[in-house]
Amino acid sequence: MIKLRLKRYGKKQEVSYRIVAINSTSRRDGRPLEELGFYNPRTNETKLNEAAIVNRLKQGAQPTETVRSILKKANIFEQVSG
Questions:
Q1: How far is 1 from 61, CA to CA, in rounded Å?
Q2: pTM > 0.70: yes or no
Q3: DSSP code, position 33
Q4: 38-79, pLDDT tens digit by residue?
Q5: Which of 21, 24, 30, 43 has fewest C-beta within 10 Å?
């Protein structure tokens, strides 16, 4: 099963995340199938590749709860159903 989840990177106390499509059995920082975006919780900055995310969701990828909330704020789910 393909999951959309966060991949951690950055220094201690200065963490950032990449939103990636990855096999659900892979480790958190393993090699992703595709990088779909960026999330910085310290500045609340988000950059998303919306077309690629919509494509992955239509193929059946399941987002984690954190990624789901990020995608809801960006209104990505409206593009999938519409």
A1: 7
A2: yes
A3: S
A4: 999 999 999 999 999 999 999 999 999 999 999 999 998 888
A5: 43
